[in-house]
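Lecture 7, part 2: worked example. A protein chain together with magnesium ion.
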Amino acid sequence: MLNDIESVLITKEELEARVAEMGRMITEDFRDKDPIFVGVLKGCFIFMADLMRHVDIKCTMDFMAVSSYSGTSSTGAVKITKDLSEDIEGRHVIIVEDILDSGVTLSYLKQYLMVRRPASISIATLMDKPARRKADVYADYSCFEVPDAFVVGYGLDYDEHYRSLPYIGILKPEVYS
Ligand code: IMP
Ligand code: MG
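Predicted complex, written out as structure tokens:
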């Protein structure tokens, strides 16, 4: 285990099992709907890659990038740094996010995309941290509910590091200071 990690919160095996389960649920719910999966970069990249291999229906994928964070606390302001390249009018949109924390990012994104008149917008998140919710937004699909701790790995970063860890870990407090 990497020296900066205090403990493993979610193991590789637990991730594999739950992500596969979510893929099967989405497969059932969106059969014949040709949904468009919209990954929120960069945090979604490993989760989405694994999830999509368990989604056994006709669909398309696109990506957006937003920034709202520096370090471990949200700045509160959301900025779109990469927009969609596909048209979503009339489409069933499934936003794929790494973690739903304050909810500020996703509620902004949902409103931002709603203007383009999609048929529906759903949220599929790897993790949900309900203790810190500020915005009125919930996940339609969530693999894990997590406690109020800063987590890294499986795509998630602390100042751009630790994304490549195959598990979700909690950082040692001294790493922040
Ligand atoms: P929200 O707008 O507060 O819901 O923030 C969502 C974004 O903040 C996520 O997509 C992550 O990129 C980042 N984030 C929130 N909590 C964590 C965490 O515990 N570890 C790493 N990134 C996090
Ligand atoms: Mg993110």
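The pocket of inosinic acid (ligand 1) is lined by residues 43, 68-69, 74, 97-106, 150-152, 156 (CB under 6 Å). The CA atoms of residues 39 and 96 lie 5 Å apart. Keep this in mind for problem set question 3.
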